[in-house]
Q: What sequence folds into this?
């Protein structure tokens, strides 16, 4: 297994320090605050480990980012076992640093059931093989990338992304508030439905809020621009593997009040709708 994926799996492998209490750490990657997808993924791991019936998998989660996370100290995840029903199990997770909540999330698990089915068709877009890799985009936009960012963005990443409509984050042009991104892990994943859900939760925060400021010709590297996730909701529709290509279709129907709203639908390479996402984020431009 590639080291960068192993490191991410280790990051998601929380230490249990007491009943319903887990401890996670953050990687030292030079960022000022904890990446939101990390807290999402770790919170889902903590909740999943308190659901003894392994046939129950998460079908929805709703979380709020309350304070910036500090990458230099551990994060404690406290799980409240709200309900264990015949078909559904509910958990509440609070992520804590220095005695204060930095994130809270409710998660619902369900036993496998069959029922009425329909779905939207997967958008028709270029295949991942015909889309540029991140390394190719870095070469294409090299002249615009600040030297201070180069070491961070050129590190091997555990999630591979191929952008159908790439944007130059360092010299952006106004684009439609919509994008399609192919994503997958860089190496094979274990055959664990819950772990693949936690991995997708981690990845789902990587590009979603970006969609809300694409029309405004601004990038996250702008010193006057402040961007941060405020909340995140996710629904898991079917089992999936994150080491296969998945198409992440994202759009942003609204931004205003220093907030951007974005939605996402995630499809398997075979066209199955496997997950849906919604997020609101802070997109504040300082004068």
A:
């Amino acid at each position: 297994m590639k080291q960068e994926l192993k490191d991410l799996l280790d990051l998601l492998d929380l230490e249990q320090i007491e009943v319903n209490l887990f401890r996670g750490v953050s990687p030292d990657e030079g960022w000022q605050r904890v990446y939101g997808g990390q807290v999402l993924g770790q919170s889902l791991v903590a909740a999943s480990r308190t659901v003894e019936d392994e046939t129950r998998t998460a079908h929805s989660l709703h979380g709020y980012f309350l304070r910036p996370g500090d990458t230099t100290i551990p994060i404690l995840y406290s799980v409240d076992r709200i309900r264990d029903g015949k078909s559904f199990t509910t958990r509440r997770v609070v992520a804590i640093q220095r005695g204060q909540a930095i994130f809270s999330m409710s998660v619902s698990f369900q036993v496998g059931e069959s029922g009425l089915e329909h779905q939207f068709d997967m958008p028709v877009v270029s295949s991942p093989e015909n889309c540029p890799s991140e390394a190719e985009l870095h070469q294409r936009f090299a002249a615009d990338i600040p030297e201070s960012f180069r070491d961070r963005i050129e590190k091997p990443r555990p999630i591979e992304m191929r952008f159908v409509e790439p944007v130059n984050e360092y010299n952006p042009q106004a684009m439609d508030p919509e994008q399609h991104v192919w994503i997958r892990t860089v190496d094979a994943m274990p055959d664990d439905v819950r772990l693949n859900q936690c991995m997708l939760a981690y990845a789902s925060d990587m590009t979603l809020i970006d969609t809300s400021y694409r029309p405004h010709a601004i990038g996250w590297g702008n010193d006057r621009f402040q961007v941060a996730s405020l909340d995140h909701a996710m629904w898991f529709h079917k089992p999936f593997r994150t080491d296969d290509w998945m198409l992440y279709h994202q759009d942003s129907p609204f931004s205003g009040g220093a907030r951007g709203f974005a939605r996402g639908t995630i499809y398997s390479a075979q066209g199955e709708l496997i997950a849906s996402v919604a997020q609101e984020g802070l997109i504040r431009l300082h004068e």
In short: The radius of gyration is 19 Å. Residues 3-111+128-285 form a domain with the Porin fold (CATH 2.40.160.210).
